[in-house]
Specification:
alpha+beta; single chain; two-stranded antiparallel sheet; five-stranded mixed sheet
Amino acid sequence: MCSIDRFNIDLRDLDNGLTQLSYDLDNSYFEAVEAPDLRKGKLHVNLSICRTDNEFDLSFDIKGTVVVPCDRCLDDMDLDISTDGTLSAVLSENKNSEDEDIVTVDEKEGILNVAWYICEFIELAIPIKHVHAPGKCNHAMIEKLNEYSATRSSDEADGEIDPRWNKLKELKTIIKD
């Protein structure tokens, strides 16, 4: 089981300048962060933190593979991920910062957990449409899809309309009048 605590960074302990961290993520990471759309994957994260006094610029470089359902056949498929992300943080006593682009960390606590930020960068890198390469989809599912697509197209081509639609058309004309 992956512990979210390993993603805690004590910003107060970092020296001014550049700090490098790296994380290897696997299925236990996605389980630990309770990612709603991701359950499996294997990724490597390089994190560079540049500290200037109480300001921190975090740069994430994430590469690897996640498992997502294919939009066409619903079988799992591997999807390569390569993304970069940045995050700015500041140590401050004022938690009510008006700047949405900067994470404010309580100066007394000084701990920033980056687990969820990493998950967000991964989710944002997943394309809206994800399908297997041609010929790799589940053949049984593709046959069913073709069967139902062909049935729907042939019904429309024959000019046969479900009688319920005719009743709705009548209702539409009544409403117009």
